[in-house]
Write a structure and sequence with these properties.
Layout: H1 14-19, E1 29-37, H2 42-53, E2 61-66, E3 88-96, H3 102-116, H4 135-139, H5 143-153
Antiparallel strand pairs: 1-3, 2-3
């Protein structure tokens, strides 16, 4: 596959992983998708290798995150996040600078997403929602309860700078 642009294939705490994308690159455009999977089968690994070999630039990546552990010890309706049975989350991210490349770059991420979907469970990770994803898919059966909480605690939608759940009022 060639030399890695960022040699960071290593176990790391979730907070350290999330901090790797905090700053971003000034002027860079971003798009991402994600999908939960039950196992890293040989077929899926081959699919991911093909995706990595097709990375459009050094600002793009495909990764997987191990789930389970403490995440799986909570029932799907005990917190906002319901997708507790997935073994992994596959993330697909692309970055570029020229707005004229929007369709091609976003298309690359969508193509990889479609390649991985046959191996997936339902749902998507809220932190990796793409502009065209439905926030309801991130919260599944918990969405209506979260709307009720939003109605009660934030009816004016002050807390909206995230993967927003709209109040119904």
């Amino acid at each position: 596959m060639g030399e890695p642009v960022l040699p960071i294939v290593e176990p790391m705490p979730y907070t350290a992983f999330k901090a790797t994308s905090d700053e971003g690159q000034p002027g860079l455009r971003y798009y991402g998708k994600s999908v939960y999977i039950e196992e890293l089968s040989d077929e899926l690994i081959d699919t991911l290798v093909d995706a990595i070999n097709a990375l459009p630039n050094s600002f793009s990546s495909v990764w997987f995150e191990s789930m389970g552990g403490a995440v799986a010890r909570v029932g799907p309706t005990e917190a906002a996040f319901p997708h507790r049975d997935a073994a992994y989350n596959v993330g697909i991210g692309v970055g570029w600078t020229d707005p004229a490349d929007d369709e091609a770059m976003m298309g690359w991420a969508k193509d990889i997403y479609e390649m991985v979907r046959p191996y997936s469970t339902e749902g998507i990770y809220a932190n990796y929602l793409g502009q065209d994803d439905d926030v309801k898919d991130a919260f599944g059966e918990n969405y209506d309860r979260l709307v009720e909480l939003k109605n009660e605690w934030d009816p004016e939608n002050v807390l909206h700078m995230n993967q927003n759940i709209q109040p119904s009022g």
